[in-house]
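A.,

Following up on our hallway conversation. Structure tokens first:
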């Protein structure tokens, strides 16, 4: 008999790897330097070396963009700034090296602050997730039965342009193991089961359309897509080996305010073909046997509020 993956009692799977991967999608600081906001030297330079050769008694005749025209003993030469090394750039643009070092230090400090902020966000997310799973395990069963879904975030308030950290878990509060399927290719777009979708309500109280493109094919259902969730265990439908979904990559936040997010997980359909990929085919016997064990549920998470503020000037 084929065996699905197993998540043991209380297993939540650390969110650090997943969250860092999400946060790594944030726009990075530009690598280049805004080098030539420094005015070129006005007096004559005894010597300047370029890729083309050595010039003596050099004065800057014209400078625009990355192009510079030099008057020297042998005539006039127009060069690209990329033709000079740093030492010679510093001769032409006094203070260039100091500016470069200072800029590099400022960016390193900014990157370190950003890295620390990311780590704090990940640690907060993991703490919030553990607390939410623990609370779900110790609360009385609700109308959803033995399974419940929790959605947590990080610090809760962000600037427009930032991406909130989020994590979801399906918690098995029963004394028996259950079988579920992780997020598949097409699950986030409701093209196949299980449905693993987000619902977002904007600041004006209207649903936010989550757009995105996809290809016509969908990966086939595998034995590895079936997961056995032990009693008092927790399951990440977007865990390793499954297809991720993140609502704030699917629309651009332009308006400040509070956005309300919920996650919906559904295995209500009992037809195996609705879970299979496309183009389809006759499912293997081990897939058929595993599918018979799957719990058919419809779960809606708690509502997570995420506030966006105007981007700092």
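Then the amino acids I'd put at each of the 313 positions:
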């Amino acid at each position: 008999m084929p065996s699905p993956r197993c998540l043991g009692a209380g297993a939540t799977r650390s969110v650090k790897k997943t969250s860092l991967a999400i946060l790594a999608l944030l726009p990075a600081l530009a690598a280049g330097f805004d080098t030539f906001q420094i005015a070129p030297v006005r007096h004559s330079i005894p010597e300047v070396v370029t890729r083309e050769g050595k010039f003596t008694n050099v004065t800057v005749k014209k400078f625009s963009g990355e192009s510079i025209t030099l008057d020297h003993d042998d005539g006039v030469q127009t060069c690209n700034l990329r033709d000079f090394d740093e030492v010679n750039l510093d001769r032409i643009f006094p203070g260039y090296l100091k500016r470069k070092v200072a800029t590099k230090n400022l960016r390193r400090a900014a990157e370190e602050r950003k890295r620390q902020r990311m780590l704090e966000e990940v640690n907060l997310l993991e703490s919030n997730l553990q607390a939410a799973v623990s609370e779900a395990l110790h609360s009385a069963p609700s109308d959803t039965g033995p399974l419940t879904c929790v959605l947590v975030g990080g610090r809760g308030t962000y600037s427009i342009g930032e991406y909130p950290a989020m994590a979801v878990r399906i918690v098995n509060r029963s004394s028996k193991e259950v079988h579920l399927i992780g997020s598949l290719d097409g699950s986030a777009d409701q093209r196949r089961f299980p449905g693993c979708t987000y619902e977002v309500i904007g600041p004006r109280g209207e649903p936010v359309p989550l757009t995105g493109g996809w290809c016509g094919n969908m990966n086939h259902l595998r034995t590895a897509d079936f997961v056995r969730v032990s009693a008092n265990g927790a399951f990440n439908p977007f865990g390793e080996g499954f297809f991720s979904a993140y609502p704030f990559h699917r629309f651009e936040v332009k308006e400040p305010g509070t956005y309300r997010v919920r996650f919906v997980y559904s295995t209500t359909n009992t037809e195996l073909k609705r879970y299979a990929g496309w183009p389809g085919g006759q499912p293997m016997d081990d897939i058929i046997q595993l599918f018979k064990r799957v719990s058919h549920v419809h779960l809606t998470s708690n509502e997570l509020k995420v506030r966006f503020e105007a981007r700092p000037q």
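Residues 39-94 form one domain. Curious whether your intuition agrees with the design.

B.
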